[in-house]
Design brief:
The structure holds two protein chains of two kinds. By secondary structure, chain A is an alpha+beta fold. Helix content of chain A is 26%, strand content 26%. In chain A, helix 17 crosses helix 18. The longest helix of chain A has 28 residues. Classes of the chains: A alpha+beta, B alpha+beta.
């Protein structure tokens, strides 16, 4: 089904235009940028997890060779009306959460290992790091809040004024779960606990900033922006007491985002602060230790949930509690994982009654934020594991259990739980979820592999299959903007508020613009992200950049055509509505025509905005085939298939690439990745030797199928956000496959990661405590 | 993640290098491939005041093979071992073990001497040296001494090497052509430090019984070690399922593995038993042990 917009490029496997440049080493990452006279910043981070700051002495450090400045909270406060600025919640802010905002530099107290406590700026990064060693710190240790259980005891408090360590408890509710669970006759009920470990997105390129202060023009220019440059400009400008117009955020190439890169962190204030204070360009490049220690963590959540079903497997209710170990402060996006884990626990299933509370527990650890599929990865692991257990108890085939409970197309739009507070209602927008389930089963050859299910022994290993269904939210509003300019050479420049974090944005925007304008891709230039291009932009998160930015480009393209008609009408002596626009945006009337190049000389541009209050819900199913070596605990992933319907595919290569990448990233969280602290709050996984990520050879057998059966009714592209769906079900699907393999041993995984020692321990525990029959 | 300040020297003889180490009074470090030392320095966990680079000292990169065995110069890289076709018969166990060392890039730079001086309990080369009763040729200001591998490794990152000594050479005894052997290790990802690893070999007497068993463990111990209890369980017996099980049980029982964030002691102990069982079965089954 092609309509007039999408005549040529959209939907085809166009190779990424970014790649040739990047593969030739011609990328421009923030550390590639050089400014004459640039200084280098290093940040002293506390090695005490919880303590009261008695004194910080930077005198010796300041006197060291090459050191140009050393700043602490006192210096920051002096430059900011006597108080240290804090970093606001960007998403789902509430007045009662302001107390938990992170100061841009520690003052009075330190609350996690890695919290910035001083900044040294020197002629080289080596000299700056040398000077860090010379700063004298006197910090009085305070009792540690090591995890969410200690947090709940309130013996030690992160914020004394609050009186307890629970920052907030969100509630997701729908229907009447209490009644459903206590109805007569009693339904089948199973109560379980599950846990996902702390891990996060680790980008190939760490964060980095280059701040340049131009005092003569009152201009602060910050390179290294990503994800949400306009939002960060607002935060920085307010805190530096500058008008927004005097701050520019410049996007460069970015080596991965995944939700973590590009939020406003303490350094996003400290580096511009130092640049203005010293009146010199200042660069800071996060090293890998800092990256693991201080970029947002995520995922650490445990829960107690119960499911109630009819005997035929029809789900009546979900009820439970989740606790998110949120670390020491609530950063920009910290509210989202705990909200999502509760609100989206029901996934693509018809669940009439839901009551899930999700508590944000403060601990002496690095703060959390959003990571691809925030809260959804965790929630899907909980739900899909619980479903397999329930189906087994009820004697219902686990595929049939899911099929029976998937929301049907006739029920769309389907309301899911409402979350408070702030209150947010959500509804699933459409689609036949059974199609993706059936396709997934066919792709992995579920029936043909039935002999391998249930822990059959082959090659000395236990084989198992797992399946799960998922949804992916996308297209966060409120709007996105684009501007299209006809250049004097007859080419087109497209400016869009979406940002590139490596996802192929330029290619996809080119495809959309090319089809919308009927101009070849090589005559179009894409400019994205930076605050210099547009009055307002919203960036890339919540799988929004294609739907929102792409739709804004369509709107701007239509507006540009109107401008062309107007300009051409004047030259062709007709009314605008009579002008026909042809290939290459040439305009014609009555046998005469005028080229875009000719019209561009008079100045020709148009803006477009796409506003949206409906989230898109791409949906799908995933399945895995594993083999478990019960003696070593090693799980080999023999096959993984993910099928997702994204409404409309702009580029089948990048869409499938996003899905495969997301699956591998999820597998890292399932098997390998674990951010660990010891019982003193010391961080144990500060290198990639200890924080293990998947490598290219670990998971070779992953396939992604991208479907477009149900275009979104809520945007002109028909597209649904598709960058995160791949990661959402991985934990549940793989854990279900492992559970299936271990069925003869009656070992049920309830926690991630499924590392070899953990699997082995699970098997040992099952052997020593055989479950009761009946 | 930048180094603290240090001086650098690249002497052209062992005597000169040793003199530099001696002068620094314990604050100097020898640099070969740099694959362990430099990351430690980047974290500022090691802050030597002088690096003595061995790259210009001739002769340390030689692999010599004769009737007495294999002599590996201290600066022989893993890649040199992989590419030396003679070693496939002269010391197949060494070749098999070295395939597990880290990744391509690291195998291009990492050295025999560097790995042994660093003495990570999970490293393959120290494990092979101990299993095979290798000798370490060390040179210091007072001259050359030879230390048996079993006496060289003292604990995690701890050896008999003095601050002013260099490893010159590692000598592996000659390898009989008909020897039975295998190497097995388990790590979470290919190239990671092993959670446990075992190197085994034995010879067969006229009746097909195991003699001269050597069973060495890495990763599941504080230093690479042979396990005499497991060797005793094997010697004098045909290597059948019962003998293998006995050796595995003896091995697990004899180990006192370390705990770290990657695995606990019980897991490592069981894993080492599993690996030795698999290694011995493989050794008994095949003339090639990988």
């Amino acid at each position: 089904m092609k309509d007039s917009f999408f005549a040529h490029s959209v939907g085809t496997p166009v190779e990424r235009v970014e790649d040739l440049r990047l593969l030739r080493g011609r990328g421009q990452f923030v550390d590639d940028l050089h400014r004459e006279g640039v200084l280098h910043a290093a940040i002293l981070r506390t090695s005490i997890a919880h303590g009261r700051i008695r004194s910080i002495d930077t005198r010796v450090a300041r006197a060291m060779p090459g050191v140009r400045g050393a700043f602490t909270a006192d210096d920051v406060a002096q430059g900011s009306n006597g108080s240290v600025p804090t970093i606001p919640l960007r998403l789902a802010p509430l007045p009662e959460l302001v107390l938990f905002e992170q100061p841009v530099i520690a003052h009075t107290k330190v609350r996690y290992v890695g919290e910035p406590i001083a900044v040294v700026v020197a002629d080289s990064i080596s000299l700056a790091e040398d000077a860090l060693d010379a700063i004298e710190l006197d910090i009085e240790p305070l009792p540690l809040v090591a995890d969410r259980h200690a947090s709940a005891r309130n013996d030690a408090l992160l914020f004394e004024r609050h009186g307890r360590n629970v920052a907030i408890t969100y509630t997701a509710s729908k229907g009447d779960a209490a009644s459903a669970l206590s109805k007569n006759p009693a339904p089948y009920v199973r109560r379980e606990t599950f846990r996902v470990q702390r891990h996060t997105a680790v980008c190939m390129e760490p964060r980095g900033l280059l701040a340049v202060w131009d005092g003569a023009h009152t201009k602060m220019t910050v390179s290294g922006a990503a994800k949400v440059p306009f939002a960060n400009r607002r935060i920085l400008a307010q805190r530096m007491d500058l008008p927004e117009e005097c701050v520019d955020m410049i996007e460069s190439d970015v080596g991965g985002g995944f939700g973590v890169r590009g939020e406003f962190y303490p350094e996003d204030y400290l580096i511009p602060f130092a640049a203005r204070k010293l009146n010199r360009p200042v660069k800071w490049i996060e090293d890998r230790r800092e990256n693991l220690l201080g970029s947002n963590h995520s995922r650490e959540t445990d829960c107690e949930i119960e499911i109630a079903c009819e005997k035929d497997g029809t789900i009546l209710a979900l009820r439970g509690r989740a606790w998110v170990d949120a670390g020491a402060y609530l950063r920009t996006s910290a509210a989202i994982p705990p909200r999502n884990v509760a609100q989206f626990l029901s996934g693509p299933y018809r669940i009439p009654s839901i009551h899930v509370e999700s508590s944000v527990m403060l601990t002496n650890k690095n703060p959390i934020g959003t990571y691809r599929g925030p809260g959804r990865f965790e929630g899907d692991f909980f739900r899909e594991r619980l479903f397999d257990m329930a189906a087994k108890d009820l004697g219902i085939d686990r595929v049939e259990f899911r099929r029976r409970n998937l929301v049907s197309e006739a029920e769309m739009p389907y309301p899911i739980a409402t979350i408070t507070s702030p209150e947010k209602k959500e509804e699933l927008d459409g689609g036949d979820y059974r199609i993706t389930l059936d396709r997934c089963l066919a792709e992995i050859k579920w029936k043909e592999k039935s002999s391998l299910q249930g822990g059959r022994l082959a090659d000395g290993r236990l084989h198992g299959l797992g399946i799960g269904c998922f949804i992916e939210g996308g297209a966060a509003g409120p709007r996105e903007n684009a501007r299209i300019v006809a250049d004097s050479d007859g080419a087109i420049s497209v400016f869009v508020g979406s940002t590139s974090i490596g996802q192929g944005l330029e290619t996809v925007c080119l495809q959309i613009a090319s089809d919308a304008l009927n101009v070849p891709m090589d005559r179009i230039r894409i400019f994205h992200g930076s605050t210099t291009y547009l009055k307002e932009g919203f960036g890339s998160y919540h799988s929004r950049s294609v739907v929102m930015g792409g739709s804004a480009i369509l709107a701007a393209a239509n507006a540009l055509k109107n401008e062309i008609r107007k300009a051409a009408a004047h030259r062709l002596r007709c009314v605008a509505s009579e002008v026909a626009i042809g290939d290459g945006l040439s305009a014609a009337f009555g046998g005469k025509s005028v080229t875009l190049k000719e019209l561009a000389g008079d100045g020709l541009s148009a803006e477009g905005t796409f506003s949206n209050h409906h989230h898109t819900y791409a949906y799908g199913a995933a399945a895995a085939h594993v083999a478990v070596d019960p003696k070593t605990g090693h799980v080999e992933l023999l096959e993984y298939v993910t099928v997702e319907d994204v409404g409309r595919t702009i580029n089948s290569l990048t869409a499938a690439g996003q899905a495969v990448g997301a699956v591998v990233q999820g597998l890292g969280g399932v098997f390998l990745e674990h951010l660990q602290y010891d019982d003193q709050g010391q961080f144990l996984t500060a290198s990639l030797a200890d924080y293990m990520m998947p490598t290219a050879t670990d998971f070779p057998n992953i396939r992604a199928i991208v479907l477009e059966n149900s275009p979104s009714p809520n945007n002109p592209l028909g597209a649904k956000g598709g960058g995160e769906g791949g990661i959402v079900p991985v934990g549940g699907v793989v854990a279900n496959a492992v559970a299936d393999a271990l069925a003869p041993l009656r070992a049920e995984p309830r926690e991630l990661p499924l590392s070899p020692p953990k699997i082995w321990e699970l098997i040992q525990a099952a052997r020593s405590n055989p479950p009761m029959e009946g | 993640m930048k180094f603290a300040p240090f001086d650098y020297a690249a002497p052209t003889s062992v005597a000169e290098a040793v003199a530099l180490l001696a002068q620094a009074g314990g604050k100097a470090k020898a640099l070969a491939g740099g694959q362990s030392l430099l990351p430690t320095m980047a974290f500022r966990m090691a802050t030597p005041t002088l690096l003595v680079d061995l790259c210009k000292i001739p002769g340390l990169d030689k692999i010599a093979i004769d009737d007495n065995g294999v002599r590996l110069g201290a600066r022989v890289r893993w890649r040199d071992i992989e590419e030396d076709t003679r070693l496939k018969t002269a010391h197949p166990l060494l070749v098999a073990a070295i395939q597990h060392v880290a990744h391509y890039q690291i195998r291009n730079r990492g050295t025999v001497g560097g790995s042994c001086a660093h003495a990570d309990p999970a490293a393959e080369m120290p494990g092979i040296a101990v299993t095979c009763d290798a000798e370490f040729v060390l040179q210091g200001p007072k001259g050359v001494r030879v230390v048996k591998a079993g006496k060289f490794f003292l604990g995690p990152l701890s050896t008999a090497l003095a601050d002013d000594e260099l490893i010159i050479e590692v000598r592996l005894p000659a390898w009989p052509a008909r020897r039975r052997w295998a190497f097995q290790e388990f790590s979470q990802r290919r190239g990671d430090f092993a959670l446990a690893g075992v190197a085994v070999f034995y010879d067969e007497d006229a009746a097909g019984r195991a003699t001269n068993s050597h069973i060495g463990v890495i990763g599941a111990c504080h230093r690479p070690q042979r396990v005499p209890q497991a060797e005793a369980a094997l010697n004098g017996r045909a290597v059948d399922a019962a003998a293998v099980a006995a050796a595995a049980e003896a091995l697990s029982g004899a180990l006192d593995p370390p705990e770290d964030l990657h695995a606990g002691a019980a897991y490592r102990r069981a894993l080492a038993g599993t690996l030795v069982e698999r290694a011995l079965k493989r050794a008994a089954r095949a003339a090639t042990g990988t």
